[in-house]
Structures are given as C-alpha cells and as structure tokens.
Design a protein that fits this description.
Number of strands: 0
Order of helices and strands: HHH
Number of helices: 3
Strand content: under 5%
Distance between the termini: 33 Å
Helix content: 25-40%
Largest sheet: none
C-alpha cells in the first residue's frame, strides 16, 4: 500500500471534528472542545466552516486524512481517533 498517496476527506464524515479533544481556542469555543463533542465550526454538510482560515487551530491543520485514520467509514474513523485520544491522554 502506498502511504504517500494523497488521501481526501470522506464526504459527510466530520470524525476528526468530533472525536479528538482540541485544547486551543476555536471561534465559538474559546476553551477548545472535549473529545467526543462536535465542533461548533462543523457545518451541516460535515465540513469545517473555517478550513484554510487563520483562526483554524493548528491542531486541526496538522490532522491530515489518511487510510489508517479514516478507515472505511465514519464509524471506523471515530473509533480510531477515540483510541488515539485515550492513548495520548495525560
């Protein structure tokens, strides 16, 4: 499997905007967000409203879609990100 290939976000997923905690401020969420909570910037279409904008947290920009993270479904992505969250919790 070629892991360097470009991997695109799955339509209507938003797992990466729900599963992980974000400790930096997000517009509308000045204290960040806890794991498992939907980001207020996640639109009804499950796309980030502040994607590519300077106010988007660096954490979000660093979280790139991959076959390992995204799996074959939103549910798999939520599960993988949840496991990562637990493994990296202080």
């Amino acid at each position: 499997m070629n892991t360097s290939a470009t991997f695109s976000c799955r339509s209507h997923c938003g797992a990466c905007c729900t599963a992980p905690s974000i400790t930096s401020p997000i517009p509308g969420m000045p204290d960040g967000k806890p794991a498992g909570v939907r980001c207020v910037q996640l639109g009804e279409d499950e796309r980030c409203r502040i994607f590519g904008k300077p106010e988007r947290p660096a954490f979000c920009g660093g979280l790139q879609p991959s076959a390992e993270m995204c799996g074959d479904s939103r549910e798999q992505a939520i599960r993988w990100l949840g496991e990562l969250e637990r493994a990296t919790a202080p």
